[in-house]
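new request in #modeling-help
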Amino acid sequence: MNRWRHFFKASTVALLIAGAALASGRANAQEKSIVVASTTSTQDSGLFDYLLPIVKEKTGIVVKVLAQGTGQALDTARRGDADVVFVHAKSAEEKFLAEGFSVKRYPVMYNDFVLIGPKDDPADVKDNDILTALQTIKAKGVSFISRGDRSGTNIAELALWEEAGIDIANDKGPWYKEIGQGMGAALNMASATNAYVLSDRGTWLAFQNRGGLAIVVEGDKRLFNQYGVMLVNPAKYPSVKKDLGQQFIDWLISPEGQNVIGGYKINGRQLFYPNANDPNA
Amino acid sequence: MNDFSTAIETALSLIAKSDPKLRDIVLLSLRVSLTAAICAFVAGAPLGTALAIYRFPGKGASIVLANALLGLPPVVVGLVVYLILSRSGPLGSFGIMFTPAAMVIAQAALGIPIVIALVHRMTVDVWATYGDALLVDGASRLRAMIPIMLIARDGLLTAFLAAFGRAIAEVGAIIIVGGNIQGYTRTMTTAIALETSKGELSFALALGIILIILSMTVSALSLVFGRALTAR
């Protein structure tokens, strides 16, 4: 019955591996941790890589970040799969509050959007205000990459088209490409196809594959980009870790947390400006 | 070609340094995909063998179904597992969304049809050759399953490796159900997707090179162990 012994040996090995795998998985589950649904910009800009080790040191909380884009992050929280949302689209956040999925929104920080385009600026929009730039790009039919994913940046972009008097949903042509992906992917595509694209400044500064791209429009006050943080309403989902989540939020808006956020720099340039004290933000 | 040489250099230096972050990602990838492949094998191998041995109405359709599911799109599996495991889904109370366990479930679901289809293919010939003899010896079809699987063990190992290969190379399902959380559910493939989106193309490619080396090592080791384990 040699065969049986081999079969037995093989199954024992398999069970040991499976057992070890499960045991090591359980060890992770006992730490103090929360799930934060956030945006690709906070991750791709490197902010979380910088911030989260400090959060862990100061509060003992391990923050598990889902980098999803604002629309998807809010939907993840609506399903009860996150404890905290940290996003950047005030209109969408206020809708989330109105639906009762959170009871309070805290402004945290801001930076701004920039219009990125090929260095040789084929649409000739450099240093225009953003509305004129978009009108010109549309009139000339120069390639433009849209996130197309209901992210905060996508929501801001759509609002800018509307403000520029362009009904982009109906007036778009083959020059306007909705890619349905994150900020980094959009920048990669713009770089590969010499297109214009709206980006948050943080992701742009951290982005490594610029190719022939450069900032063409910046500094327009319409390009303001506010970030807010909300605890998911524990009354909707009892599974929400409300104490740890609130502790994380309290630290972010504390003078210490705000200082740390303001201290994040790439090549000496500050990426985010703390403004938890601004009640209108 | 600069990107490729930079990537190879980066890959080698990452391996040489045995970077702790990279080590954790590699270990998680292995842990998740091996567990998923084992689950898929334990569930799929008996089913595949039974499909070869038993005769029942709908047998032909079952075989077609298992083979059709070889092309199961990972992103759809990810979405279905997401809807089931989400807090608002039927199994939401277990709280395993965005954990390694969720990734194991998604990858096992992808692996099961592969194991069933391949094991069926491997055992059907063995059954044709030895089936009558086993039944004449007085074994029931149920008891005949184990000797049949043992005779076809080389093929079973291939089925296991195919399930593992599918799991370790897959990104669409686990990025949905795992969430690509750093230090927790970030695997080799989701890290590659992330580094690509950060524009760190050489670094992403370096990770890809390491993943291929890893996958080859696991396959080679399984073949060696498998041979030692099943040597007559």
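bot summary: The two ends of chain B are 49 Å apart (CA to CA).
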